[in-house]
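2024-03-11 09:14:02 INFO queue: dequeued item Beta-xylosidase, len=442
2024-03-11 09:14:02 INFO validating residues
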Amino acid sequence: MAWTLRRSRGRHWATLLGATALAVTAGGALACPAGAASANVDFATHCIPPAVAGIPPIDGTTTANISVDNETPKVGDTVTVTYTVVTPAANNPTSLALPADIMTPTGKVTLGGAQTGDVTVTGPKKNDPVPGNGVFPSFSMTGTFTVTSPGTITLSPGDYNIHTSYILELDTPCTVTNPPAPVSESVTASPVSQPNTRAISLSSASGAPGAAVSVTGSDFTPGASVTLAGRSGDNQTADTATVTADSSGAFSGSLVVNDKTTSGIVAYEGSAWSSDKGAGPAAYAVIDDTPVPAGSQKLTTTVKAGTLSMSQAGDAVALSSVDFGKGGASTGALQTVTVQDFRGGPAGWSLTGKVTDFTGTGASIGAGKLSWTPACVTKAGSPSTCKAGSAGSVGASGATLASAPDATTTGGEFTVDAGLSLDVPAFTPPGSYSAVLTLTLT
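2024-03-11 09:14:37 INFO prediction written
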């Protein structure tokens, strides 16, 4: 994929004599955007303007909100946090306008409840121009934390700092007067599921109606009662038997298979089949040896298993151009990918992608600057249902574009798309930049 930067013309930077400074005011609350999951909160803020401003510390009000990319993570998951200062407690105290893209915010988000600590967040050096005596614009900062404890974790806005780079390098640190600030967002973390390592094997993959097949199993709960059962597709047949796991969780038993539609055999603990406490299905077919009546003909057919494959609508994507000095989002759409799973059986699939750095003449844009918003559509009649990956950065290490889970019966055809966005730094040298996005289906 390739895209082009187009340099803007006619911009003239005026010379500003003297230092710029930020003063603190009481900020009013803004309504939370429609449909936003997080809540705007107000909290008292103590800000210290740069010494060059000659203004004493002033106490004001900040309006902010916290949002996350995953409200129901598991322990061990990484959650991306966005801290948006909707109305900062700061404004331009002079009549001189401040140019765009001079502000770099940093801050922290305070965790509470099931997990405590602070999340460091940073924002890009990007802001709208600030008119003379105008209110400082809203800004957002992002960071991540790893979930370490199950339960409800609250997130509150914390201290933040506004750094400006124009004529002088200046900082305006703002601290929460009465920490912690009100809770703006929360996540509910669940424990890590213990992997199911139960397994079974059969003495034979086929047999005549009424034949017995030996079933051995391992890693079941020691001493547990284990049900052996035939399966016909997604349904259990009437053929069952019960065995008991020994002190190591192993067992050996026998199941008589009468149902001619049997396609597999499972073993499970409890009163009904559960993939969490079961193993299988192990493939098993009943060979119907019933004699053909006189004057009749026995008809048979075979359904052959296919493969897991993907195809693309094209191999090049042209992202939109951006202006030198402004930068921003260079956008486009992934060429549509079609996944066909004609294998049969219980296995699902995963489609992942990773991207190289965008390189140009003497410059580059990091792979982490490319993000996508995946979408996946399942063709009607497919046994599986695909799930789109999470929106976010693709990067050199890669991310999931789409997937389908393991199940008793899987397969089908799926259409995968994604919106693409490359965050181009404002003063990236003009020219054409390109990268290679590699998709892998497993």
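2024-03-11 09:14:37 INFO annotate: The radius of gyration is 31 Å.
2024-03-11 09:14:38 INFO item closed
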